[in-house]
Amino acid sequence: MPFLRKLTRHARVPINAFEEAGTQADGRLVRLAMGPFRPYLVTHPDHVQHVLVANQRNYVREGMFWDPLAPLLGEGILSDGESWSESRRILQPLFTAKYVNALAERMAEIIDELIEETVVPGQPFDVARGVSAIVHPTIVRLFFGAKISVADINRLVPAYDVAVTAKAIRLVMPFVPDRFPLPGDQPFKHAIETIDDVVYPRIKQARAQRQVGDDVVSRLCRAREDDFTAEGDRRIRDDLVAMHGASTETSATALTWAWPVLQAYPEVAAKVQEEIDRVVGDDRVSTAHLPGLLYLRQFVNELLRLYPPGWILPRMAVETDVVDGVTIEAGSTVLLSPYLTHRLPRFWDRPLTFDPERFAPVGESRRHRYAYWPFGAGPHVCLGQHLFMMEAPLLIAGILRRYRPVVHHDGPVLPRLASSLRPAAGLRMTLVPR
After folding, report:
1. Is the dihedral of CA 53, 54, 60, 65 positive or negative?
2. How many CB atoms lie within 10 A of CB 178?
3. What global pTM score does this model have?
4. What CA–CA distance (Å, rounded) separates 160 from 69?
5. Around Cβ 41, how many Cβ atoms within 10 Å?
6. Which is nearest to 261 in space by CA: 343, 354, 350, 352?
7. Closest CA to 386 of 54, 97, 48, 173
8. Do 344 and 38 meet the contact criterion of CB atoms below 8 Å apart?
9. Which of 202, 298, 368, 408 is most buried (CB neighbours < 10 A)?
C-alpha cells in the first residue's frame, strides 16, 4: 500500500494517514510502502491475537518507536526478556485489583482535594495541563509517598510531556539514522536529563537511608538491595520512570479527551450528568458511588475505544512467521494499533460515532476478544488498567458534580502525532460553577 503520499496529504495530522490506511486495508494484513521502510500493518483482531498472544515471543519491542525512546523507557517493564520479567514481578503487586481497591478511597479523597485546589472557576485553562495537575499528584501521593516533592512533580510533568512528543517525527521517518538530527532530538535529550536529575537523587537517598515502606521507591530499592552498583541504580530508575509514566501519562492523555467529547455529544453528556446527579448528588464522590455510575463507566470504555492513549504499538519479528497466509520476514516491523482496530467497520457498527451504549453488558459479550484492546494484550498487557478504570470515573464525576465544562474550540478536536494519542496542543476549557 503506497503510504508516503498519504503522509504528504495529511501532513498537518499524520495520524489521519494511518487511519486512511487502516480503513483501506479493512482488516487485511498489508505492507506500507514508506520508501526503504516497509512495515506490516496489523489491525484484524485475529492477527492482533496471533502477534500479541499466540506467538508473542517472536514479536519484541525493538526497532521503530522503541529505539528512539530507549533513553526514556530503559530496560524495565517496557522492555522484553529477563529485564521485563524481573520488573513485572516487582511492580505487579502494586497494580492488582486487591491492592488498588485498598487504595481506592484514599485516591477518591486525593482527587477531590486536588479538584478543590487546582480549579479556578470561570477562568480558562489548558485542558492537558489541568488534567495533569490532578492525575500526576494523585499517583505520586498514592504510590510515591513523600519521596517526590511538589517541586519534583512540577519538573517531571513537562519533562514527560516533551519526552513523549519530541520524537514524534521519527515515528513517520524511522528510516532516518539517529546520526542525522531531526527536530525534537534536542528537546528530548534535555527532557531525559531533567527526569534523571529528579529520579536518581531520590534513589540514592532511599538507598542511603535504607528506607522501609510500601511506596514504590522503597519497594524497588529493597528488590535490588543486593546490587548497589550504577547498573542497579539504573534498573531502579528504569522501573521508576516506567511505572510513573504508565500510571500518569496514559491516564492524563485519555482523560484530556473526555471534555471535547462531552461537548461534541450533548445527548451523551446529558446522560452522564443525570447519572452523576442521581447517584452522587451533593456528596463527595467516593468508591461507594462507583457501582451506580454504570453509564459513566460505559462512557470511559467508549472514550478508550476511539482515543486509546497507546495508539500505535510496533513490534519487530525475531524469526520469520506466517500470519493468515502472509509471510512476515525476520527483522520486519509490524505496526499494531488499537486506534485502527477499534475503528474497523466489520467489527464496530458506526465506528466513528461516539456511543457508550455499545458497552452495555449485552453488547460486550458478543464482541471479538481482540476487537477492543486499549490496554494492550497478552503478557505485556498494561498493569495499570484497573487503576485507570477506578481513577477515571472518580475524576470525571468529581468535576461534573460541581462544574459545567465549556471547551473553547470550534469543530472536531484532532489528534496530534506523538507516541501517545494527544489532542492538538493548546486546547482550552472553562469550568463554570453549576
Report:
1. negative
2. 10
3. 0.90
4. 12
5. 22
6. 354
7. 97
8. no
9. 298
Question: How far lies 272's CA from each of 277, 375, 403, 432, in Å?
Answer: 9, 23, 13, 17
Interatomic CA distance for residues 390 and 293, integer angstroms? 11
**Comparing C-alpha atoms, which of 222, 304, 327, 311 is closest to residue 256?**
304
pLDDT string in tens for the chain (434-residue length): 999 889 889 988 889 999 999 999 999 999 999 888 899 999 999 999 999 999 999 999 887 667 777 888 777 666 676 777 787 887 788 778 888 888 889 999 999 999 999 999 999 999 999 999 999 889 888 877 767 788 888 888 888 888 877 777 777 777 777 788 888 889 999 999 999 998 898 888 888 877 666 677 888 888 888 888 888 899 889 888 887 777 788 889 999 999 999 999 999 999 999 999 999 999 999 999 999 999 999 999 999 999 999 899 999 999 999 999 999 999 999 999 999 999 999 999 999 999 999 999 875 567 899 999 999 999 888 888 888 999 999 999 999 999 999 999 988 899 987 778 889 888 999 999 99
Q: Return all residues near 166 (Cβ < 8 A) that are at least 6 apart.
A: 184, 185, 187, 188, 191
Q: What angle do CA 283, 122, 403 make, to 5 degrees?
A: 25
Nearest to 339 by CA among 385, 372, 292, 382: 372
Determine the residue type at 8.
Answer: T
